[in-house]
Amino acid sequence: MNKFFIILFSCFLVYSCEPYLEDATELPPLPEEPSFTIDNHPTDPNKFVVKFSSQEFFDHVWSFPGGTPATSVLDVDTVFFQKAGTYNITLDASKIGGGGSSSASQTIDVLEDAVLQCDETMTLLTDECSMRCWRLSPDDGSIVVGPTPLSSEWFSSTGLDENQADDLWCFHFDGGTLEYFNNNITFSACAGYVGLENYPIPPSMTYNIVPSGSDYSDLKIILSDQFWMGVEDSGHEYEIIELSDEQMVLLAPIKPCD
Q1: Local confidence band at 26 (pLDDT 50, 70, 90 cut-offs)
Q2: Pairing relation of β-strands 131-136 and 2-9?
Q3: Residue 214: enclosing H or E segment and its boundaries?
Q4: Residues ≥6 apart with Cβ < 8 Å to 98
Q5: Is the dihedral of CA 201, 135, 239, 124 positive or negative?
Q6: What distances in angstroms separate CA 111 from CA 49, 117, 175, 234, one per listed residue?
Q7: What is the pTM (predicted TM-score) of this model?
């Protein structure tokens, strides 16, 4: 069985401060709806280019349910949809002098499922562009956590809990789908590092391989539905540090539990 390693790092800072109170004032009205455009990608029918076109807004965030990425704060970005269907793209924005944020949505239609390319990465990930299952390595140090990428300063695992050791993440080439098999129990970090029965597994999951834009890797895996691999408080984006027929090393930021 192929194995993988998880490297987590913190990307959050917490500051202490004294509470501050001021006299109640009347808030200005909400700003008008932000405006944006959506264009088809010139070479890929499953990609769409979104562009924020309003003026005097100082902050905004995109929401792409079912897409990759799931959210973005860029003025111009490209979102990928693996599966055919109808999707809503939403933009929330805050304006200078406004009393809060306003939102606008548009609907797009994706006509066909995406066709993945059988390149070197997909060949290794899916066993010659078929299907391959991965599990956490039983070796010491298969999960490490640190304050910076690739660091193990805070934690390095010594073996796995039995409910971690039998979990499988299976990547299918056809349709770009992902299956998670937990053998009835999932080791949950968010529940206090215990095994949970009836863990909520999405009925269908997809993945995509995209450029990482990172100093540490060339590509990353993005999972749909905000799901995760290896440990619950990671993901849903994993930089591929190393990938071979037998081993995969992934880097992800810590994802705080709700």
Answers
A1: low
A2: parallel
A3: none
A4: 28, 29, 30, 31
A5: negative
A6: 16, 18, 14, 32
A7: 0.71
